[in-house]
Design brief:
about 170 residues, alpha+beta, 6-stranded antiparallel sheet, two-stranded antiparallel sheet, about 30% helix
Length: about 170
């Protein structure tokens, strides 16, 4: 049976403290922007922390940080997440997509068409997050997909995706 991993994504400005906390707990962690197109913005990079279980005390310390569940090894997980840093809009423009922020998870990813959700999530079996003191989750509707060979900006947003993202953005402000 494959081992389930729990990756918590702590965003800026809490990422620096989270790195210290992860080190104190001897938890595997890495800066998302290392070796990506955003490496020059490493000071603003979110931090990935591999939690030993989904209810680890760091989950409680950073309740707004979503947790991604996967059976992928660290390298495959990182490659897939790196590939989602930039998406292509319907107008063929590239955009950095902070889909992992709770308002976007709630306002967009939770409502995306199931086949597209499965394609987007790839090896991620679920994402869990907290928004306005409520717990939410989105689960991959199909068997986890392998995603080798995907590069940055492989995911093309549809017009419906784009409209939903814009609505989620408006609602988050």
């Amino acid at each position: 049976m494959e081992r389930l991993s729990f990756w918590q994504l702590v965003d800026h400005p809490n990422a620096q403290q989270a790195a210290i906390d992860a080190s104190k707990h001897n938890l595997e962690h890495f800066w998302w922007y290392i070796n990506t197109v955003f490496e020059r913005a490493l000071d603003a990079s979110p931090l990935w922390i591999c939690l030993p279980e989904g209810d680890h005390e760091l989950r409680m310390k950073y309740p707004d940080a979503p947790v991604f569940e996967t059976t992928s090894d660290t390298e495959q997980f990182k490659r897939h997440m790196d590939s989602l840093l930039v998406v292509i809009a319907p107008n063929e423009q590239a955009y950095a997509l902070r889909f992992y922020q709770p308002r976007y998870l709630h306002g967009w990813l939770q409502h995306i068409e199931l086949s597209r959700l499965s394609e987007f999530l790839g090896p991620i079996s679920a994402i869990k997050w907290r928004l306005d003191s409520e717990d939410y989750a989105v689960k991959n509707p199909t068997k986890v997909q392998k995603t080798e060979g995907r590069d940055v900006a492989w995911f093309h947003l549809t017009d419906i995706d784009w409209q939903q993202l814009k609505l989620a953005y408006i609602q988050s402000n």
